[in-house]
Amino acid sequence: MIFFPLWYLQEVEGIRKDVSVTNLSLLNTPWYIKQLKSRNKDNPFVKITEEEINSLDFKAWSRGLFSLPAPKDSLNSTGKIEGELKPTYFDVALRVQDLMVLYIIRDNNWNRPIYFAVTVSPTSMLNLDEYLTMEGLAYRLSNNTSQIIDVDAMTNNLLSIIGDESWFIDYNKNYNNNTNLSISKTYQPGYIYRNLANDNIYVDPQLGRLIQNYRTGFTRLAISHYLDKNFGKAEKVLLDMEKKMPSNIIEIPSKELQYQIGQLYGGLGNKVKLRYHLNQLIERNDLAINDYLLYGKTFVQTLEDYDEAKTIFKTIYDNFTMTERAIEVQGFKSTKITPLEWKKWQESLPELVLLLYLCYKELEEYDNAILLIEDWLVRSPNDLEATKLLDEIKELQNS
Prior knowledge:
The protein has 16 helices and 7 strands. The chain is mostly helical.
């Protein structure tokens, strides 16, 4: 739990005691709320009375709006932040921690900046997303919805390093390397990224998911540069991320995030990196039929690699026909696919056949294209478009 190391640094080492690190789970307990109140008397952000603290409990809630006071300025003419608040506990209530977050925002009255760690669940952010600005591994609460990320803060925090670049690869071997950027009690921007490029270190799945928070930050910063047409900066951010935490050493748990990274590289014209990520993606064991179709189409549309796309589409098509035969003979128990998954495969078959046909056509594999369409017409004899495709490919074969 990341809270306890921070607690140690503050209570034992005396580092940044001006910052109040609030644990949301403990915020459900009266003793912890009282502690926050007593320790911040000079600049309070918990102003409810001890009697009110003792009486805190789940609050029955269906769905409604929240409205909290906020500074008026050119970006906020109403002097409040507001939105829809949904129940967080079994769809019927708000937890004590939810009530306390709202009380803290209200009672703090914008005297101190309020941040949410990126590890906080969306539910616990109480639909404040529109008012949160990403600055690194934390979101700052803002009085407006104009800034999704703070590019300067993100750049300063993510691209800066504490220590030496050799620490990425092997911290234990290189920790004595001379550097002006050593670990210090004095604030300095950046992270250590210790051993995140070390292929001799085992990274368990939980740590891999935590590292994804860094990658999400890098990717969002790169997207921001891309949308602003700062393509050089966008690519620099992605390459810096790959240097600090290579995906061939620490896998990217989210296939959606990795595809987004690959697409960014493609948009920036770095087809080598796009291909690299697509090749990693197609080796995953958590892919659905639509994932394969998406990656195959990307090989065609962005890389113009019909050979690789054909391999993907042909593999899926062969798997479909084998699975179909197995289900016909022995039912679903003979396969690893569920009826719902099979339905999705069946719905995707027309698109799959067309994509494979286009690859055969482009590669001038006319015999294979003819066999494919003839097999399809056995399934769908009234498909006039398929009949046209068959006539088209036969004409090409004979030309």
